[in-house]
Amino acid sequence: MMALLEIVDLHANAGDAEILRGVxxxxxxxxxxxxxxxxxxxxxxxxxxxxxxxxxRVTRGTVTFAGHDLLDMEPEERAHAGLFLAFQYPVExxxxxxxxxxxxxxxxxxxxxxxxxxxxxxxxxxxxxRLRVVExxxxxxxxxxxxxxxxxxKKRNEILQMAVLEPTLAVxxxxxxxxxxxxxxxxxxxxxxxxxxxxxxVLVTHYQRLLNYIVPDRVHVLSGGRIVKSGGKELAHELEExxxxxxxxxxxxxxxxxxxxxxxxxxxxxxxxx
Amino acid sequence: MSSPVEALVNREYKYGFVTDIEQETAPIGxxxxxxxxxxxxxxxxxxxxxxxxxxxxxxxxxTHEPHWANIHHxxxxxxxxxxxxxxxxxxxxxxxxxxxxxxxxxxxxxxxxLSEQKLLAGVAVDAIFDSVSVGTTFKAxxxxxxxxxxxxxxxxxxxxxxxxxxxxxxxxxSDNYFAALNAAVFSDGSFVYIPxxxxxxxxxxxxxxxxxxxxxxxxxxxxIADEGSYVSYLEGCTAPKRDENQLHAAxxxxxxxxxxxIKYSTVQNWYAGDENGVGGIYNFVTxxxxxxxxxxxxxxxxxxxxxxxxxxxxxxxxxxDSVGEFYSVAVVNGWQQADTGTKxxxxxxxxxSTVVSKGISAGRGQNSYRGQVKILPKASxxxxxxxxxxxxxxxxxxxxxxxxxxVQNSSSKVEHEASTSKIGEDQIFFCKQRGMNTxxxxxxxxxxxxxxxxxxxxxEFAVEAQKLLGVSLEGSVG
Amino acid sequence: xxxxxxxxxxxxxxxxxxxGFAELATAVADAAGDPAWLADLRRAAVxxxxxxxxxxxxxxxxxxxxxxxxxxxxxxxxGPAMPVAIVDLAPFLLGMPGWPLLVVVxxxxxxxxxxxxxxxxxxxxxxxxxxxxxxxxxxxxHLGHHAPVDASAFTxxxxxxxxxxxxxxxxxxxxxQEPLHVLYVATDGxxxxxxxxxxxxxxxxxxxATVIETFVHLGHARGTPRPQLTDICAEIVLGESARLEHxxxxxxxLATYHVGFTAVxxxxxxxxxxxxxxxxxxxxxxxLHARLGGANIETLLYGLYVARGEQLVDSHTAIFHDHPDCRxxxxxxxxxxxxxxxxxxxxxxxxxxxQRTDAKQTNRNLLLGDExxxxxxxxxxxxxxxxxxxxxxxxxxxxxxxxxxMRSRGIAGRAVEVLLITAFVAEVVAEITQPQVREAxxxxxxxxxxxxxx
Lengths: 274, 478, 454
Description:
The structure holds 3 protein chains of 3 kinds. By secondary structure, chain A is of the alpha/beta class.
């Protein structure tokens, strides 16, 4: 069986700096992979390169997604093919309601797949259903996309979009950072609700905490732009106990358990313990 | 890559066709004779001819156009323009059945079918073709409510008292260079009177079409909303593609008597010139309303066309508790220049005004917001809120803000906010990641930016305006 | 395109002159001793003023500041300066007694009253006339180049009449700890005349300094002094990474017409911070123009104007963003009581090259009198797309809710108003970083607010 996502020897630059230095990774349908690593290891770059962010330049390697050469595709074509990126910093679009935005995106993807656009009434039904996943009422749909949202609300909104667009591969870029315990639970619930044998999820995270709620099939540690270790879910626990230093050997004593201070910098009102 | 590109593609202006119709035009040039010709052609009473001549003499004394606006153009040769053009077959004051089929066809092509069955439900239209009105729909229906909606020429014949009383009462003939010119040579326009306490049963609309070459269009619109009445009025404008610049110098006067409301919406889509800045309409327009006690005047404009736009729809808040509003979206692309905004003159007590201006600049376009908020000493408790936001697309355009705030009463409160932003590449990437193409993404973002204005437009036209905005910005981002 | 020089649209038609100016200018030109470049500058200035005259109301830059009153005056040669004693200056001194002080009486440096003390090597602070006399190369290079004669009718008047003033030069890498205070004193000797000193401040690469300019009036004559015109220019040149904090305090008499033009030219990565306070003058006008001539510059302009009676106070600022990655931040506040008039005009011009500009401008006004009036025009001209530019302007009176809240906490009467107004103005005064100067000005402003309410 062909892998859903196959990354081979991926190198990528931001400006002149090489961030990814030979990442190889295979994700099969039905799996959840976690990519962990210290700050600056290239985790977010990997997520952005998969989505086709114009700020990064791929210098070597291949990425095959559902049989397509992913690197040859425009960002929207990747979305049409079923790739979804939950942004680490979701973008605000003032004046555009969530409902309008989501319907435009949903129909753009349907159109690209040769399907009829969904009329507004049917779309509302779909929305109503998906709102339950993130435990939100319909009033959120009339608010402008992410404008004035708290950090936690933005992340939750990403999960809502994911639930509506139903991607075959969801890449969640630090969706857990800055979330209080309730928001984290909702995010995890959203991801778990979308687990299907024909879909896969890649969780990019710094902290082990999220993996208490979403149990991964595989855990990879990214450091210096390469995957330095892969293992089962137990690897995450090992990291939690021993820190990244154990693998990176840089003297970097960063903890895998979220320190309380990291919450203070976010909009999260309650610094909850994991 | 979604960074703004320098090259502009040739925009499709779908209203750029010419109607081949036999026309009667005044000889080229402007003199007292021209003024007399127009007045005679329209069988006007003596007082109106005198009013025109006085305006003409005043215009002669003015010697030059106002130069304070942030616009640049070659000098306009006022002697190279014909000041009157009318389809020869047009029968004055005729019913719609008598209108030349070619004209009906023209309007159908513009999306304005003049047959009442086909019209947008609830909208009455006065169609102005070059210098004259070719027909007004639903006149009979409106007459039942006592509403007069007809061409200006017709109003001079049938409602001379109202015309004489209010003509020039808001925009005097000597107000400014272009208003004086208009007063001298105005040919037609729309006239509306809403009687006391009447809520006009349908939207009123005027559709302006310039067709003839080497002519200017100088229409004049007068709307009188009597005490406690309500009217919503919309105008639309298009013109053929021509290499010469054509002059459009209109005047609009609104009179809102005690507790009346006038809502005036404009979707201006005159030909803007080609990708090299050749041709296009010079749009110099004076629009002003006077709001008496408790009255409300609301201007909404979506300005996407014209090579040059020079207009400042304003409100004189004369009566206590009167309200003035101005909502504007102005888009410049290619080589377009817009200098537009509003004046809110607070005379009465507890008067309120709101100004929301959204300027979008792309290509080599230059967009200026110019506004004045003036609170006079007797306007106790006056209140103004102004918000003007600019968005730039690309690096060869400009966005400028020139707000004048003059407060002479200490119990009033004025707030002005302005911001400039661009369409963020991160916003475009975000939309693309969700499956939209670049064009789609821009349209979503721009419509979000303009939302506060669009929601002021009547529903049918809001949709039209959103589409228009998409067309106007086509090719500005690649 | 707007440029520093062509900023002022001149109205040739029906231009008015300054009565007596021609004679004063001739007297200055005839006084021997000008180096050739200065004589040329004066000729150009006289020609320029003859060409443009006093600006009229059709001139956009002077639309709300009528000069008829000034045009009606006859200006004569100044009389002898009234004797000034050091004790007379005490109310206007700031900070520590040892701080360098240059006293300029009726346009001329008074050596007896000044005390420069010892400055670190590489720093100069003294009389502009001396710097001209010794042929200091910086003077010839800069004087009249930053506030040129065509920048305004009044920069021409100043160039034609300037005899002395202040010269500040801080060499590369030198950081002055103590503020340099230039105290301009007008005496009864200047009544009926034009006082036109100039300041030239040059900070070389990496230099740091604090400069204070104070304008005061010392009058012994009884009754209202005869009107005078103070026409002051300041040219400030900041080298790469130089840092200047500039405080300008205008406390002239109510008979004075005060017109000032401050031109700041900044090189890459320099930092300029200004606080301008305008309290005095029958009519006062200050232009502050900053040209950001390199990347990574920071320009912070804070201002406060307070007027009452028949005063008119006018602040014009212009910030020219010509290069990328610069930041400008501006907050001007005004308090206008009785029949006073305020005028504010703030321009921010962002050229196409100036990507990633971050500019914010705020103007807030408090009208206390029923007949007080403000004309404000915050203006943005943006030609670059990747910028963050905002401006805001407000006009209002004291907030009734706040008043009520205070009263409910037991604060009554005048104290409520003093407190609220002081709170309104405190935001800008707090931006002065030099602690002694800030404290002195807080006290001054508080006293002014008390007087305003009384």
